[in-house]
Amino acid sequence: KRLGYKVVTYAEWTARWLSWVDGCGLMNGRQLPQIPTRFQSKVRVVGDLIAETQVLEPFSDPIETSLQLPENAELLGMLPGSKPVKLMLGVPLGLAIAEYLHKVRPQVQMVIPVAPTLTLETLSRYADPATNPCFEVVQGCRAELIQPPQGLPYFLTEGGARVVLWTRTPAYDLLSHCQLCITTVGANTAELASLAVPMVVLLPTQQL
Q1: Is the pLDDT assigned to residue 31 strictly greater than 60?
Q2: Is the Cβ–Cβ distance between 147 and 49 less than 8 Å?
Q3: pTM of the entire predicted model
Q4: Among the listed residues 107, 93, 184, 191, the one whose alpha carbon sits nearest the alpha carbon of residue 143
Q5: Residue-wise pLDDT tens digits, 73-126
Q6: Could you tell me if 63 and 111 are in contact, meaning their C-beta atoms sit under 8 angstroms apart?
Q7: CA-CA distances (angstroms) from residue 35 to 10, 11, 23?
Q8: Separation of alpha carbons 36 and 139, rounded Å
Q9: What are the distances in angstroms from CA 52 to CA 49, 55, 141, 164?
Q10: Residues linked to residue 144 through DSSP beta bridges, in sequence order
Q11: Predicted local confidence at residue 63, as pLDDT
Q12: Taking residues 147-173, what's their average pLDDT?
């Protein structure tokens, strides 16, 4: 608003701040009677943005080919978040989970759909105890960022677990191939639910 951009909001249940915004999309028409007449021109029913999403066209390269998965591989997604407060705990904890699964269930291939707001270099700092003050709090696992000349980048843990870093967005095509996702709370839980992907939602309590 301060920079002069138009502001548009979306309301699932209650349309708020209508005097401050330029427009508001509503999930359904049930909200319309509660909206004052002077704001009616600012609102429009646009539908449920999660339940009514269009099916995306698959990528030209099959997921299995891009990830170089063997036939018996089990794909496990890891979504540690995109903000520092979540990444500081989620990345080392997720890598520790990957290290454990690599030992007890080697057919599991873990993949992180990297948030579009993150660079690989930024993400890798959370996998290093020298640059992540919360590393020891969750007894995390250190990992090195590998960027091969061909193929996808990945984290390599000290015990040999490989966690692929998926940078193409949106990652719905990838997530729909996952048998399970380990995630933190956020919009990603709604996205996984809309894709019918089972998830384990982690809230690390080592640091509240």
Answers
A1: yes
A2: no
A3: 0.74
A4: 93
A5: 899 999 999 999 999 999 999 999 999 999 999 999 999 999 989 999 999 999
A6: no
A7: 14, 12, 13
A8: 54
A9: 6, 9, 39, 30
A10: 156
A11: 66
A12: 92
Query: Does 51 score more than 80 pLDDT?
Result: no
Nearest to 19 by CA among 35, 33, 32, 2: 35
Does 2 or 11 have the greater pLDDT score? 11
Distance (Å, whole) CA 137 – CA 116: 27
CB within 8 A of 198, min separation 6: which ones?
179, 180, 181
Spatial neighbors of 121 by CB under 8 A, at least 6 apart, are 145
Alpha helix (H) residue ranges in 15-171: 63-67, 84-104, 120-125
- The letter for the amino acid at 72 is N
Retrieve residue 40's tokens. 């009616």
* CA–CA distances in Å: residue 177 to residues 32, 69, 182, 204: 39, 12, 14, 26
CA–CA distance, 152 with 66 (Å, rounded to integer): 8
Q: What is the DSSP string of 67-109?
A: HT--TT-EEEEEE--SSHHHHHHHHHHHHHHHHHHHHH-TTEE
Residue 97's nearest CA partner among 71, 123, 77 is 77
